[in-house]
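Researcher: Here's the sequence for the chain we discussed earlier.
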Amino acid sequence: MSLFPILIFLVPFSGALLCAMAGWWWGHAARLIALASLGLMTGLAVAAGGEVLATGTLHTHLGGWAPPLGIEFVMDPLTVLMTVLVSGSAFLLLVGLRDGTRLEVEGRETAFYALTLLLVTGMTGMVMTGDLFNMFVHLEVTSLSAYALTGAGRPGAARAGLRYLLVGSLGASLYLLGVGFVYAGTGTLNMADVAAHLTHAPPDLAVMGAALITAGLGVKMALFPLHGWMPPAYSASTTPAAAVMAALVTKVAAYALLRILFWVYGDTGFAIDLSLLLTALGWAGATAIVVGGVLAFAQNDLRRLFAYSSVSQMGLIAVGLSLANRDGLTGAILHLANDTLMKAALFLAASVLFTRFGVSRIDQLGLLRGRAPWTITVMALTGASLIGLPPLAGFFGKWYVLMGALDAERWVFVAAILAGTLITAGYVFRIMEPLLFADKTPAVSTTAPAPSSEEPPDSRSEGSPGYLAASAGFVLALILLGLLNAPVVTHFVRAALPEGF
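Model: Thanks. This is the structure I predict for it:
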């Protein structure tokens, strides 16, 4: 039994408690504790990855009860990839969001950092748990933290947070009801044990459980048409909160769906027929690719545009899952990682645009010409990855899903992926055109917070060293994940796929 899984889980949880306590006496302590916790967590996750590659899957059970009765944490190569992605992305975001946090979360920094660590704790539990009910517990920890982060935002944030809470509670209820059906059919909640008992479960109970779990997690991953909570939540919350949530929350929900559909139901080649459910998931994903892209193209507010872009990208992941073949699953997993990095970089840039230059809309981007070369470069490279231009990471996720759709002869899905790529190119060009080619400079926004210095806008620096380093880290990760795509797929993605895939 390895201690790595439980240590990785306890570090952000303990950090959240320390943030809440220490922040009462010294305001700066919360940030230091959050960064130390996430840095240590990332290091532990990397070390666990080395052990997984050397010895195989790690298992840890809690409370002295062995599985299937006890709660189990599991780390295989795919879990390692997700854990490093969650902890590393959260760490870089907090490093890069220092200015935005000071300006937009002034007086509430302790609560922000504590909630962010609780959010990471819940997502880490979702990634590592081997128990369906424990998944629900961590899903709720994640969701409650996200609701609080959303509600403590700009004017209108309370309404957006309430909407998120109501819709999210519906999703959690559907998930829990689905787990109830699975338990009624198999008599167990441990994922590996459920997989072993599904062949003897009443098919109606098993299929209904899978359908309800998919619907519940579909809400959490903002899968069309269950996405209505996302744009208001991301545009009304503070930019730092939106950056953390946009990069991670929906991706971890998609990962949970992947685990349940293919490591529980599909572990031995789908003992229960889920063809109708997978078809519905694929059509929802294909629709999301196109509709999410069109809605993104229609936005003027940058954060709403990025939110609808996430709806489109989550659709691509859903299509990859629905194909239920090797290439489709590979593409879905890769794009899950890609979109985490892309949205982190874009929301990080949006934070700097808002806090340093008063820019939050596309029609204001002309303000940045000649004044923010690094941020423009970050947005250009991230946009290129979002479109799917090689050798950036975004190309490979789309490529594998497209190959999976061609192999399965799902021509409508192929058309949706190609159309979505063209639409993505359209809204990326809408962003880049005023940055690179516009002749007119609009007026400075009056809705932005006060600048962090007394210098006139034209002489303000582009961002703190932390922002420059963090944004460089995300862009470098997109480049390396593209260039090193083959070993990542071989050692961390396909090495973890269930037998038969």
